[in-house]
Amino acid sequence: MSTQRTVGKLQDQVAVITGGARGIGLAIAEAYLREGARVVIADIDTTAIDEGLAALGDGESVMGVRLDVCSRESIAAMITAVEGHFGGIDILVNNAAVFDMAPVLEVSEASFDRQFAVNVKGLFFTLQAVASSMIEQQRGGRIINMASQAGRRGEPLVSTYCATKAAVISLTQSCALDLIKQGIRVNGMAPGVVDTPMWAEVDALFARYEKRPLGEKKRLVGEAVPIGRMGRPEDYAGAAVFLASSDSEYVVAQTLNVDGGNWMS
């Protein structure tokens, strides 16, 4: 897939997208390129990074960096690499996350720790480090944290994941109120159910715990969305451009639901 650069809403802005090699992250990268940004795909999977770069097809405006958000050393190295290549960071999309599910009585400590390590701790310390870089640049910035509709409510099989995404919404509010003093606007997005390759794993877990045939849960959740289908990665690109651009100048500390009408708040 080739993406041509045009003068757009994000012209010459540098955007780092964690977990950017596939799914929603890659769709946002494509949209940012169309709006004139220079894009950094930061992902733990180097093979996926290579595939993502090939899909974007723009060597001058795109770079890939391996990033483990659980390692502050890796976060610092990513920022150094981006600053050296593009001169700074204007936009951060905190998209990296992991998912697991189990009944409350079966949640393992390893699963609990892993989800909080990536979805909360990793997100926060990536935000902290990039915000520090933005402040040194003295040109403000935009930070978008990817939450979930799961952070708006509880679910019996998804207790830990729901808790991590609720934490993301709370951190978005607190960090926004602090960093706006430095000209950094922090907001979030809360996707609903999204049709990505990961849903095959999610569907298999629901089939196991709810005693369903494979594929049934995915079909049911898609039918339950008011708009009539599951989300697609590209459905999130417009909101991501809005939150990264001057169009959202007066939007601070909000988490925007982008879920086909699944949740109202």
From TrEMBL:
The keyword Oxidoreductase applies. One of its GO terms (biological process) is fatty acid biosynthetic process. The keyword RNA-binding does not apply. Gene3D superfamilies: NAD(P)-binding Rossmann-like Domain (3.40.50.720). Residues 13-202 form the Ketoreductase domain. Its EC number is 1.1.99.21. Keywords: Oxidoreductase. It is an enzyme of class 1 (oxidoreductase). GO terms for molecular function: D-sorbitol dehydrogenase (acceptor) activity; oxidoreductase activity, acting on the CH-OH group of donors, NAD or NADP as acceptor; quinone binding. Belongs to the short-chain dehydrogenases/reductases (SDR) family. This is Sorbitol dehydrogenase. It comes from Halomonas huangheensis.
